[in-house]
Amino acid sequence: MKLQQLRYAVETHRRNLNVSEAAEALFTSQPGVSKQIRLLEEELGVQIFIRSGKRMVAVTPAGRAVLEIAEQILQNVQKIKAVGSEFANQDSGSLNIATTPTIARYVLPNVLRQFMQRHPSVKLNLRQAHTEQLNEMVLHGEVDFALGNQSGGNANEVRRLLGKPWACALVLPPDNPLAQQNHIAWEHIISQPILTYDDALLPQSALHKALNKAGQNDAHIAFASNDHETLFDYIRLGLGVGIVDKIACQHLHDLAVRDISHLFEPMHLQILLRQNNLLRTLAYDFIELLQPEWQRSAIQNLLYAPAVQDFSI
After folding, report:
1. Which of 23, 69, 187, 233 has the highest count of CB atoms within 10 angstroms of its CB?
2. Which SUPFAM superfamilies does this chain map to (predicted)?
């Protein structure tokens, strides 16, 4: 049995049994992936995937057990490599972080600047994703950690540190009646077209949950984009009112901005970590620059303690 065979089987499962996509992600050929999975099945004496012709269409019960253990093995291999890097090169290597577009633009620049000054030899790899993708990337070990601002996903293996509160804002032209209204409720907002983020359309999003809780399921999302400038331009054109992260509005002078955090469940800046993951000192340094309250001891308590509830600072 080879690690390569386990890696091929796991990646095929992650890619919804699409061998072509798995091969592309692994920088190898489709026949090579199929062959190695066949060899693994022959060695184990069980079928991992159910096939229809040349296509894989489902996972067998035995296959589910094999894939779960294979995931753990591959994650442990990464941990072993991390141990070597940690002690051989204390100030080099790479740090892989996933985050949302808003956090990448409005929260991280100063942190990145400080980190690069401290660790000039470290390669920083930043990936943008929406909330559900952040959970998956952490769970599968694709990144060292992720930064988000919404809850999402139910995996016990993903732990969260909650930081400073995260506010939502309603952005609208200054002559819009809501700009001067004392108390804003959902019934006022949904009377107008809404402009917001792409992932707000997902059932797990904070906006979707808030509207559903308020019984306002007929809101008209006129435009969705993760580009703040495009959203603000369309608000200026009168296409509708915007629901965005308040931090993105700090330099807006020609549009009205109203805090509507009271319409949402409380949100916080948060770090997502995989349970029992071995973090390098570099990762702890980055996290502490982002939020000094996130001390190494608190993070280790979160990572290595039994999963009961999210740990908040």
Report:
1. 23
2. Periplasmic binding protein-like II, Winged helix' DNA-binding domain
